[in-house]
Inverse folding.
C-alpha cells in the first residue's frame, strides 16, 4: 500500500487541492475559483459557506484525477488565506460574511489600538505594526458596529480552523502561524496576549485554541467523507498560513534563503531562528510553520490580483482569443509584455489596488499610474503592473537586509512563477539569481509537508523538504537592466511619498465615502 498526502490551499480567490506522493510529485489536483464582494469602498468580504462547498468539489475531483484509493491518502494539511475570518455560532454556522484580509474599513479601530496600547508596545508583543490587515481591528469593528453579531459569536474563525472543524476536528484549532496574524498573539510565547485582550476589551473565549503546525487535530468524519471523497478516519493536521506554508514548500527553512510568493497577494518571507524585530516597525515578525521558529515577511495586499484586474478590465480581446485557441489568457498577456522594453516606456505603476501593507502600511493608498501618455499601449500597462509589484517586493527585501536578515538566495513561487517574463523581471529588479520550483503551488506543497510530519512519515521538516522540494530552473539577472531598474525604483518610491505627504490618497478615500 502506497502513501500519499494531500495539501489543500484555500486562497483568497480560489481553492486548490493537490494529492502528492512522498517525493513531492503531483498525482492529482483540482481548482475552484470563487469571488470576493465589495460592499463599500475599502470593504472586502466573502461567503464562507461558498468557500467550503468549493473545497468539497475540488477534493472530489482531485482524488478522482489521482486515481488512488482514498485510504492511501494518509493525512491532510491545510494552507489558508490569513486574517480572513468568519464569526460562527456554536453549531459552526456563519453569522455574517467573512471579512477579508484585504478589507481596510477598520482604520478608526487601528487608531484606537494606537491610543489604548501604543504602536511600540503593540509591535513588541505581536511583532506586527498596527494596521488594518490583521483580524483584531475588524473584530473590534464588529463589536462596535454589529454588537449583536459579536455577542452571538462562539468563535472568530479563520479558514484554517473553520474548515478543519467542518472536516471533522472537534473544536477550533488555529496554528501559531495563522494566530500570529490575528494581531492578538504574543509572538515570543505563542499564546494569546492577556494584556492586549484586556486593553482592547475583547472576549478571549471567542478566540480559537492555539496549536503548533504539524499537529494531528482530528480525523475525517463520516459526514465530511461523503462530501469530500476522503476516507473516513484520514488524519487532519494543523497546517499554516498560506505564506508560511509557501516558505516550507519553497525550502525557505534555513538562514539566507528567502521566498517570494506572488499570488493574489504578494509575500516575501525569510526564515529566522530567533525573532528579529524591525526598528522602524515596517516589517512583521511572525510565527513560522516550522514549529517554534519565526519568519519576517512583507505583505503586499494586491500583487497577482493587480494583473488579474488588468486581465478582467482591459484584456477582453486576449480572453476571447484564448478561448478560441484553448490557452490561458495570461499566456497571451505574457507574450505581449515580453515585447515591451524594461521600464514600460517611462510608465510606472504604484500597485496599491487594495491599499498598502508592507512596507508603508497606508490604508488610504490606492493604485496609481505615473507617466501615462497617449503613446502608451494596454500592453505597457500590463508590464508596468508586473514591474510595480516587483518594486514593492524589492522595498521589502531592502528593508529585510537593513534589519540584518541574510539574503543569499531567492526562490519564486505563486501564480506569477508560471510567467517566464515576470520571473526575469524579478531577477533584474532584485539583481539576484532567482530559482524556480518544480511545484509552483508551494503553499499546497508546504501544507502537504506538514501533513506528512503529522502522520510521522518524515522525522522533521528538513528531511521532508529534502525529499519533496525541488528546483527546476534559475533566472540570472541582467545587470544592465538592473542598473536601469534602479533608477525607475527611486522614482517609484519618490512618487508614492509625494502623494502620501500631500494627503492625496487620504482625501480621495474620505471624499468617496461621503
Amino acid at each position: 500500500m502506497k502513501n500519499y498526502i494531500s495539501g489543500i490551499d484555500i486562497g483568497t480567490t480560489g481553492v486548490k487541492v493537490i494529492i502528492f506522493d512522498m517525493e513531492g510529485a503531483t498525482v492529482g489536483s483540482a481548482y475552484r475559483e470563487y469571488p470576493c464582494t465589495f460592499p463599500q469602498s475599502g470593504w472586502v468580504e466573502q461567503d464562507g459557506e461558498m468557500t467550503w462547498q468549493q473545497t468539497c468539489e475540488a477534493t472530489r475531483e482531485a482524488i478522482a484525477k489521482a486515481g488512488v484509493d482514498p485510504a492511501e491518502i494518509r493525512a491532510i494539511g491545510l494552507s489558508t488565506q490569513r486574517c480572513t475570518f468568519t464569526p460562527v455560532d456554536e453549531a459552526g454556522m456563519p453569522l455574517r460574511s467573512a471579512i477579508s484580509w484585504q478589507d481596510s474599513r477598520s482604520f478608526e479601530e487601528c487608531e484606537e489600538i494606537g491610543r489604548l496600547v501604543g504602536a511600540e508596545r503593540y509591535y513588541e508583543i505581536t511583532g506586527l505594526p498596527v494596521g488594518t490587515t490583521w483580524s483584531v481591528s475588524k473584530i473590534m469593528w464588529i463589536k462596535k458596529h454589529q454588537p449583536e453579531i459579536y455577542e452571538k459569536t462562539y468563535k472568530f474563525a479563520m479558514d484554517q480552523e473553520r474548515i478543519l472543524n467542518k472536516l471533522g476536528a472537534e473544536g477550533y484549532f488555529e496554528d501559531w502561524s495563522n494566530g500570529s496574524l490575528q494581531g492578538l498573539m504574543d509572538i515570543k510565547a505563542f499564546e494569546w496576549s492577556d494584556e492586549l485582550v484586556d486593553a482592547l476589551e475583547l472576549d478571549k473565549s471567542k478566540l480559537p485554541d492555539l496549536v503548533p503546525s504539524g499537529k494531528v487535530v482530528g480525523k475525517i468524519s463520516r459526514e465530511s467523507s461523503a462530501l469530500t471523497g476522503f476516507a473516513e478516519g484520514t488524519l487532519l493536521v494543523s497546517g499554516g498560513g498560506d505564506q508560511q506554508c509557501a516558505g516550507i514548500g519553497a525550502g525557505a527553512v534555513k538562514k539566507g534563503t528567502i521566498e517570494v510568493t506572488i499570488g493574489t497577494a504578494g509575500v516575501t518571507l525569510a526564515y529566522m531562528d530567533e525573532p528579529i524585530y524591525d526598528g522602524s516597525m515596517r516589517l512583521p515578525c511572525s510565527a513560522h510553520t516550522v514549529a517554534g521558529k519565526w519568519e519576517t515577511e512583507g505583505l503586499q495586499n494586491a500583487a497577482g490580483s493587480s494583473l488579474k484586474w488588468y486581465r478582467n478590465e482591459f484584456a477582453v480581446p486576449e480572453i476571447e482569443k484564448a478561448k478560441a485557441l484553448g490557452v490561458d489568457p495570461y499566456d497571451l498577456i505574457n507574450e505581449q509584455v515580453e515585447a515591451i522594453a524594461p521600464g514600460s516606456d517611462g510608465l510606472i505603476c504604484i500597485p496599491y489596488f487594495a491599499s498598502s501593507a508592507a512596507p508603508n502600511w497606508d490604508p488610504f493608498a490606492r493604485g496609481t499610474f505615473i507617466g501615462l501618455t497617449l503613446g502608451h499601449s494596454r500592453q505597457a500597462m500590463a508590464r508596468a503592473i508586473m514591474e510595480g509589484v516587483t518594486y514593492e517586493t524589492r522595498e521589502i527585501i531592502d528593508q529585510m537586509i537593513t534589519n540584518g536578515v541574510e539574503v543569499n538566495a531567492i526562490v519564486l513561487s505563486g501564480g506569477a512563477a508560471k510567467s517566464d517574463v515576470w520571473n526575469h523581471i524579478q531577477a533584474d529588479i532584485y539583481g539576484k539569481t532567482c530559482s524556480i520550483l518544480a511545484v509552483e503551488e508551494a503553499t499546497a506543497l508546504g501544507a502537504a509537508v506538514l501533513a506528512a510530519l503529522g502522520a510521522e512519515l518524515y522525522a522533521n521538516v528538513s528531511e521532508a523538504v529534502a525529499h519533496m522540494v525541488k528546483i527546476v530552473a534559475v533566472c540570472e539577472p541582467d545587470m544592465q537592466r538592473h542598473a536601469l531598474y534602479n533608477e525607475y525604483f527611486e522614482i517609484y518610491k519618490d512618487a508614492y511619498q509625494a502623494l502620501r505627504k500631500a494627503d492625496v490618497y487620504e482625501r480621495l478615500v474620505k471624499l468617496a465615502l461621503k
About this structure: The longest strand covers residues 26-33.
